[in-house]
Specification:
This protein is α/β, with parallel strands linked by helices and about 290 residues long. Helix content is about 45%, strand content about 20%. The chain binds ligand C2E and magnesium ion (3 copies). One magnesium ion (MG) binds near residues 182, 204 and 238. Keywords: Membrane, Transmembrane, Transmembrane helix.
Length: about 290
């Protein structure tokens, strides 16, 4: 039985792999043109305070506005860009674009503008010897203060080898905040928190998903806020989709959250609007 199912799995698997490989090669080849023709866009997703739902920062999330396919997800093309190296050029563009946007919002909205701009940085970018210099020069040319920028890295990227750990230290020394993305997933180790200067823990959506269910579901979310508080870090709960989750996170001690409930990534979030986390009937009560 085992063999038969292996063979069946095999037969289904191989053509799929070929398709994916062909698909990836095509995407990779089209990326050069896409960069030259300006098909990439940066969308911004609010990161809000709990329980008020005030936008305190935004995360820059790249989109590919493909002439034929429409919007292509970064989940599809970032790994391809890492493999063919175009992430270095694309990443530099994203950094410039989002820092310029942060400054434009400061000019337009003043105090209502987000305090920080969070930018994802991949392993390949972090390994570039000149990356910390690039960050410094983009800050200088855009006029964004270093404290207004957050660089989001994953544990895999930090332990990517070469000078990635040193790069994180250099970026942090500029005054830029370091966020550890998707925390608790992948090859997580708490060792990392002692190895690099982390300011923000982004607690992965998977620990938020079942948080309002009875039983053990909230245990890890609870443990992670304790680690975060104990180390004096800021914790951001990722992927919050419901009022109930927001209320439970607040009850557990989370002060920052991000997710479709508060706002999807968009070209220009509404900074004037307050996405109230506190709704009639919700469990969150300010001051408790
Ligand atoms: P990430 O950095 O963990 O970003 C969060 C992802 O979760 C985003 O997906 C966001 O749209 C999605 N998300 C936010 N709230 C919710 C929610 O409530 N429910 C659900 N189901 N999803 C939610 P997105 O934009 O597709 O990006 C996927 C990943 O691609 C990112 O994960 C990040 O690792 C990478 N990525 C995106 N933009 C960039 C970029 O500019 N540079 C680099 N290097 N990587 C990027
Ligand atoms: Mg991120
Ligand atoms: Mg994340
Ligand atoms: Mg994530």
């Amino acid at each position: 039985v085992a063999k038969a199912s292996t063979e069946r799995g095999h037969l289904r698997y191989l053509p799929q792999m070929d398709q994916d490989a062909g698909e990836q090669a095509r995407l990779g080849a089209e990326m050069r043109t896409a960069l030259d023709e300006g098909q990439f866009r940066v969308f911004y997703q609010p990161i809000v305070s709990l329980p008020e739902g005030r936008i305190v920062s935004v995360e820059a999330l790249v989109r590919w506005d493909h002439p034929v396919r429409g919007f292509v997800s970064p989940a599809e093309f970032i790994s391809v860009a890492e493999q063919n190296g175009l992430i270095v050029e694309l990443g530099e563009w994203i950094l410039r674009e989002s820092c310029a946007q942060a400054v434009a919002w400061r000019d337009a909205y003043g105090e209502k503008a987000p305090q920080r701009m969070s930018v994802n940085v991949s392993a390949r970018q972090l390994a570039e010897p000149r990356f910390p210099e690039l960050v410094a020069s983009v800050l200088a040319s855009s006029g964004l203060p270093a404290a207004g920028l957050v660089v989001e890295v994953t544990e895999t990227a930090v332990f990517g080898g070469g000078r990635t750990v040193q790069a994180v230290n250099e970026i942090h020394a500029l005054g830029v905040r370091i966020a550890l993305d998707d925390f608790g997933t992948g090859h997580s180790s708490l060792t990392l928190l002692q190895t690099v200067p982390v300011d923000i823990l982004k607690v992965d959506k998977s620990f938020v998903d079942n948080i309002t269910m009875a039983g053990r579901h909230a245990v890890i979310a609870t443990a992670l806020i304790m680690v975060s508080d104990g180390l004096g870090l800021m914790a951001v709960a990722e992927g919050v989709e419901t009022a109930e989750q927001a209320a439970e996170l607040h009850r557990l001690g989370y002060r920052l959250a991000q997710g479709y409930y508060f706002g999807k990534p968009s070209p220009e979030p509404e900074f004037d609007a307050v996405n109230e986390a506190v709704r009639p009937g919700s469990a969150v009560r300010p001051g408790r």
